[in-house]
Amino acid sequence: MAKERRSLNGKVVAITGGARGIGKATAAALVRRGCRVAIGDLDLALAEETAGSLGGGVVALQLDVTDRTSFTTFVDEAERQLGPIDVLINNAGIMPVTQFVDEADDSIRRQLDINLYGVIVGSQIAIERMRSRGTGHIVNIASSAGKVGVPGIATYVATKHGVVGLSEAIRQELLGSGVDVSVVMPVLVDTALTEGLSSSWGVKEVQPEDVADEIINALELNRFDAFVPRSLQATLVLGALLPRRAREAVGRWMGVNKVMEISDPTSRRAYEDRAAASRVGTAKSEPAPAQRDAA
Q1: Distance CA 211, CA 85 (A)
Q2: What integer pLDDT is reported at residue 290 of this predicted model?
Q3: Could you give the CA distance from residue 110 to residue 255 in angstroms, rounded to a whole number?
Q4: What angle do CA 244, 248, 250 make, to 5 degrees?
Q5: C-alpha distance from residue 121 to each of 147, 157, 228, 236 (Å)
Q6: Is-contact 183 140, C-beta < 8 A?
Q7: For the purposes of burial, counting CB atoms within 10 Å of the CB of 171, is it exposed (0-12), middle (13-18) or buried (19 or more)?
Q8: What is the average per-residue pLDDT within 274-287?
């Protein structure tokens, strides 16, 4: 028997890193379902441009997910303009590509702050409000890298494993509270995060709209694990049953060890520079700051 879908019409949804990519695609999908949406982004001008293009009364607000005060202000203002938040989507994230031993300390800290600390803080703020009302849904955008190890992005992988583990833990803490949790795990998504990367490996990129569709499904069907594409779940489950050597051999055959090969250093450098400007104080002059998509 098919599970009955929840209606999202009239729900208030806040999305971090919502000015482009997965965040923008998700906002558009939610507006089509009658949701009232607030997008938070480091680049307020771009967020305002996105909100205007989406219509539906989308609210654009500045947000630095690494700053608890900024995050609280974002939620406060979203609720002032739209009403109590029913859904928080923790989407903001960055993905520098480098061999682990060569990674600079500021890159490590920036990823920990944006990709993991920001999700922790956002989840805490949402839970405080949702639990008192006995209803709500937190959606954390992780990655397939939260389930496997991918060379070339070791710190990113660590943060995404953290997001998956965090989501598992708070889901258990919130059982019976009326507050639900979902974790979304895509393969590489065709967004700014993949600029300059090789496209010659064996796993096809998905589009931001594909991720948005699975976020909608997670909300409507109250699904905890959301893999993009859905076939990824079976691949990971079956792979986990193999002995390590066999599993790693399959991964090499699929090209996992080559996923982070850079085919266009110039465009990749442009993204890496934007990712390095991931603070409100440094990013205002940048055309596209990097607190964007977490997948």
Answers
A1: 21
A2: 47
A3: 28
A4: 120
A5: 22, 19, 25, 29
A6: yes
A7: middle
A8: 55
- Residues marked as catalytic: 156
> pLDDT tens digits for 77-131?
999 999 999 999 999 999 999 999 999 999 999 999 999 999 999 999 999 999 9
Q: Which helix (H) or strand (E) holds 223?
A: none
The edge-to-edge listing of strands for the beta sheet with 136-141 is 59-62, 36-41, 12-16, 87-90, 136-141, 179-186, 225-228
Do 48 and 99 touch, CB atoms closer than 8 A?
Answer: no
Beta-bridged to residue 183, according to DSSP, are: 140, 225
What's the pLDDT tens digit per position in 42-81? 999 999 999 999 999 999 999 999 999 999 999 999 999 9
What H or E segment, with its residue span, contains residue 236?
Answer: helix 231-241
Ordered domains of the chain (ranges, CATH): 12-283 (3.40.50.720)
User: What is the reported pLDDT for 234?
Assistant: 62
Q: What percentage of residues in the chain have a pLDDT greater than 90? A: 65
User: CB-based contacts of 9: which residues, under 8 Å, 6+ apart?
Assistant: 33, 34, 35
